[in-house]
Amino acid sequence: MKKLYLVSNKITKIENVSHLENLQLLELGDNRIRTVEGLDGLSELKELYLGKNKITHLKNLDCVPDLRILSIQSNRIIKIEGLEQLIKLDQLYLSHNGIEHIENLETNTAITTLDLAGNRVEEIKNLDELELLEDLWLNDNKIGDWSQINRLASLKNLGTVYLERNPLQKSADYRRKLKLALPQLTQIDATLCR
Fold first, then answer.
1. d(Cα 47, Cα 125) in Å, to the nearest integer?
2. Number of independent structural domains in the chain
3. Percentages helix, strand, coil for the chain, rounded to the nearest 5?
4. Among 52, 51, 57, CA closest to 69
5. How would DSSP label each residue in 134-157?
């Protein structure tokens, strides 16, 4: 078995999957899981979907070092941590949690998509190592200081940013300011740049 979908059940614990050594995709969204555990033996796992659960901490992921996609949206996570061993991680989805700080992503240099929408982020920082980053979703946060945008200037591959519904969007020339600060952008929010 390579793919296992167990969406919208009442699963409270990840268990009885460690023998599925060829498993590449595990979808456990919309359950009642509180802890990331029971992934030992899933060394081939490439995609893990745990959205809409009750998870409070990112931990026990070092046993799935080949993970490329981690989607853990709509949980109760307040700190980005426990991802150090996931050096092949390409897409990280952490929207709709309680995250206040962008941190602990220094070893995740393969990330091309980072979704932190709907959190409590006020400062854009600690992204310098993510040189391959193409898509950054920070909409629905608390970013109000335009100087934060300058911190993205070194990310030459960054083509898409979502910053709508942040305090800085209230600026009358919001799109123009973003494009001037980040000329490499091809898309701002849901609209392509001209």
1. 26
2. 2
3. 10, 15, 75
4. 51
5. -EEE--SS----GGGGGGGTT-TT
Percentage, residues of the chain above pLDDT 70: 100
User: What is the residue type of 7?
Assistant: V
CATH for 175:
3.80.10.10
Contact between residue 160 and residue 136 where contact means Cβ atoms under 8 Å apart: yes
Give the pairing of strands 187-188 and 160-162.
parallel
- Give the confidence band of 12 by pLDDT, cuts at 50, 70, 90: very high
Angstrom distances, CA of residue 130 to CA of 80, 109, 111, 154: 15, 5, 6, 10
pLDDT tens for 142-160 read 999 999 999 999 999 999 9
**Residue ranges making up the domain that contains 5:** 1-76
Given 16, 51, 76, which residue is the final one in a domain? 76
Q: What is the pTM of this model?
A: 0.96
Residues 88 and 169 in one domain: yes
Q: Give the tens place of pLDDT for each residue, 39-56.
A: 999 999 999 999 999 999
The helix/strand count (H/E) of the chain reads as 1, 10
For the cut 90, the answer to whether the pLDDT of residue 22 exceeds it is yes
- The pLDDT of residue 194 is 79
Would you state the torsion angle of the CA atoms of residues 167, 172, 178, 179, taken in this order, to the nearest 10 degrees?
160
Residues 73/93, Cβ–Cβ less than 8 Å: yes
